[in-house]
Structure formats: structure tokens, C-alpha cells
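Private note to self, pasted from the team thread so I don't lose it. C-alpha cells:
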């Protein structure tokens, strides 16, 4: 009976996210989709910025069924500042504020650095770093006036210890980590918390979780079944991550329960990296 009561208390924990205005970039597929649905289950109002409108609309409809206060989709290329501004305007026009920003958009193509080109470097930098700068700048313009807000950026364990075939991506994500720590120090006085979540190997649970523009559309091009099995064996927990694992961490960091947490980089990797 005691165990049941304890579980009930956990299940009923109020994360204080009901009716919060939340923006999730790249919220249509994979990790972004799981983040959207996790906020939906808490009753938040969601604005999904994505280049894949069809997939994002599917996610938005599912979010409403799960209990989202509302869910809207805005076609957004985060590398384009004017489109980012339009995404934030859609959120403020509908909800009057932005309480949470999740910088989730990410892209990579696994290859050794010697196989890459300057054009590839620029694409990785633009999507994974310039996109974060664009979104965070507009979010701060709003949140400073509100004197409150939470920003969570999705990075990667490749940023913490380096991974073969992810040299450019890992380097860029390390820049995101440093950027977010600085933003946390600069804006804590305005009641704004800024944190980072670093997934390890995180595999979509099904093809329904990804859209046509996702880098996971052809999952075998990212990781073969043999590589996934090998990766799982390298984890202390002996399993690869799933999108919901990352979403759980993001929702906590956005919530009032993490009200004294800022400037932190949290690995969600099954224990693959254990860096103090």
C-alpha cells in the first residue's frame, strides 16, 4: 500500500506547466515530437516551429488529444531570423507571452571529418548553432520584459567527450553548451533559467515518429542494427535511449520543480558519459 501511495504522489506531481506558453523548434519528429507530447500531457499551450508542416500538424493533433491547452504549427526555418520572429509572434499573439523555449532543431550526417566539405560545415553550424542564437535572442527579448522564462537547448553527448563521425556536430554542440551557460549567468537576474540536455544515442520508437525531412527518415543511414546493438552494450544500462527519455528531462527542467536549476548540462545517455 505504501508503494502504491508513493507512486500516486509521483503520478500526481504538479509540474506547474498547465497553460504555459511553450515553443518547441523541430517539434514534429523524433525527440521534438516527444517533447511536444510531454508538455501537452501537462496542459501547456504549444507552438511548434518546423519545416515539415505535414508531420508537425500530425503531432499537434495528437498533442490536443493528450490534453494540450492548444497547439499551433508555424512553418519555421530556424536559420532565418525573420521566420523565427514570425514563430514567436504567433505565440505571443495567441497567448500573450512565451514561458518556455526548447531549442530542439538539430541535423547531422555521420561521416569522418576527412570526408566532409566546407558546405557541410556551414549547414551543421547554421542549423545547430545559428538557429539556437536566433531563437534564444528573440526569446530573451520577450522573457526579460516578463521577468521570467525557461530556455532548454538540446545538445549531444558528442559535445562532452567527442565521437567518431561527429566532429563538426560535436564541436558545434559544445558551443551550444558554452553559450547556454553564459546566457544563464547573464539573465538569471531576470528570472530566466537556461539549461542543456545532452542525449546519447536516441532512436525513434517507430516510423510514425519521424517526417520526411527528418535525418531519421532512413534510420539505417544513421545507425545500422548492428551498430545500435553495439551502442546498447556500451551503456551501463544496456539500452539505447528513446525520445521520451529526453522529453522527461526537458519537461522537468522547464517546470517549477527545477526552479533553482540553471546553467546545467544534463546527459540523458544511459550512463554513457559520466563527466562531472
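Design output:
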Amino acid at each position: 500500500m505504501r508503494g502504491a501511495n508513493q507512486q500516486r504522489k509521483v503520478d500526481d506531481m504538479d509540474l506547474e506547466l498547465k497553460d504555459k506558453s511553450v515553443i518547441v523548434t523541430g517539434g514534429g519528429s523524433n525527440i521534438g515530437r516527444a517533447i511536444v507530447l510531454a508538455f501537452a500531457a501537462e496542459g501547456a499551450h504549444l507552438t511548434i516551429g518546423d519545416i515539415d508542416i505535414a508531420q508537425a500538424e500530425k503531432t499537434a493533433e495528437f498533442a490536443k488529444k493528450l490534453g494540450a491547452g492548444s497547439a499551433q504549427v508555424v512553418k519555421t526555418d530556424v536559420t532565418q531570423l525573420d521566420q523565427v520572429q514570425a514563430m514567436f509572434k504567433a505565440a505571443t499573439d495567441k497567448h500573450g507571452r512565451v514561458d518556455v523555449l526548447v531549442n530542439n532543431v538539430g541535423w547531422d550526417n555521420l561521416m569522418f571529418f576527412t570526408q566532409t566539405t566546407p558546405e557541410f560545415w556551414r549547414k551543421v553550424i547554421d542549423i545547430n548553432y545559428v538557429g539556437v542564437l536566433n531563437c534564444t535572442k528573440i526569446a530573451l527579448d520577450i522573457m526579460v520584459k516578463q521577468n521570467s522564462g525557461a530556455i532548454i537547448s538540446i545538445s549531444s553527448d558528442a559535445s562532452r567527450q567527442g565521437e567518431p563521425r561527429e566532429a563538426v556536430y560535436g564541436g558545434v554542440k559544445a558551443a551550444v553548451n558554452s553559450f547556454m551557460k553564459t546566457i544563464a549567468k547573464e539573465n538569471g537576474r531576470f528570472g530566466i533559467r537556461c539549461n542543456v540536455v545532452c542525449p546519447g544515442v536516441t532512436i525513434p520508437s517507430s516510423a510514425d515518429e519521424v517526417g520526411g525531412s527528418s535525418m531519421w527518415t532512413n534510420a539505417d543511414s544513421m545507425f545500422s542494427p548492428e551498430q545500435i546493438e553495439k551502442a546498447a552494450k556500451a551503456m551501463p544500462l544496456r539500452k539505447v535511449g528513446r525520445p521520451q527519455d529526453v522529453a522527461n528531462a526537458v519537461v522537468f527542467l522547464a517546470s517549477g520543480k527545477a526552479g533553482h536549476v540553471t546553467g546545467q548540462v544534463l546527459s540523458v545517455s544511459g550512463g554513457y558519459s559520466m563527466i562531472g
